[in-house]
Amino acid sequence: MMMDLKEGCGSQGSQESSSLHPTSWQAFAQSSTLHGLRFIFPYGQPSIRRFLWAAALLACLGLLALESAERLAYFLSYPHVTSVDAMVSSSLVFPAVTICNLNAYRFSRLTRNDLYHAGELLALLDVHLTIPQPHLAEPDVLAFLEEKANFTAYRPKAFSMKEFIERVGHDLKEMMLYCRYQGQECSHSDFKTREGDWQAGGLGGDDGGEEQLELSLDVCVNVTVSWRKATDTQSGAISRLADCMIRAGLEKMDSQ
User: Fold this and answer.
1) Alpha-carbon gap, residue 144 to 149, rounded angstroms
2) More confident residue, 248 or 225
3) Suppose 214 and one of 83, 165, 167, 180 were both cysteines; which one would form an S-S bond, judging by CB atoms 3.0 to 4.6 Å apart?
4) Contact present, 106 and 170 (Cβ < 8 Å)
5) Domain at 108-167, CATH homologous superfamily
6) How far apart are CA 44 and CA 13, in angstroms?
7) Which helix (H) or strand (E) holds 98?
8) pTM higher than the cut 0.70
9) Comparing C-alpha atoms, which of 109, 241, 83, 222 is closest to residue 167?
10) By mean pLDDT, which of 41-45, 115-119, 142-146, 177-181 is the weakest?
11) For the chain, domain boundaries
């Protein structure tokens, strides 16, 4: 009888000591910073509080997984939004306008020294300073080249590309046939030359929203540097191209 009591007390004591001794998972839960985890795995016997904390934690984890899956699916759909806001302005700052003739140089202004130094660059002469394929040239152009390209006993002079561009390049005074801005007539003097035939200006930088800039230019097809015969179709195409470039530039200016 005494032996049974001792054995019963010993077994009960061992159970209490084992329940009071924390497991490694309980020790981790007590030291974890995850909210509620230490209440789910407390020391001692299970309780209603432990069940409620476990349900709350599982619900939060479920919502987190659901929201993460929804956001991931949204990201993988590659959504994009295009927003265009149209704003009407009564006045716009007049931008800089650049005018450059597509025909870079005037054939009639070429000299013998120009042909000697830049004839090959202009594709008027070959590497031997002779006229390539003269049968393709117009008679007057061929006669001009034969006269200017005669380098027999010729002593070349110093050549400056900057001086060549300024002298042979197109002059805005000759190119501009008509100019009007904000109801006011303008001329070549309202534009400033920056380099060669490039022109930039804007009549003092006033706004140019309502009354646009209107230009009428001569593309100077007849004086372009080319020894090949230009047909009427080619000349018309060059004129239309220049006109389209001017119109496109003005439309871009208006859109700004």
Assistant:
1) 8
2) 225
3) 180
4) yes
5) acid-sensing ion channel 1 domain (1.10.3590.10)
6) 15
7) strand 97-99
8) no
9) 109
10) 41-45
11) 24-78, 89-106+169-256, 108-167
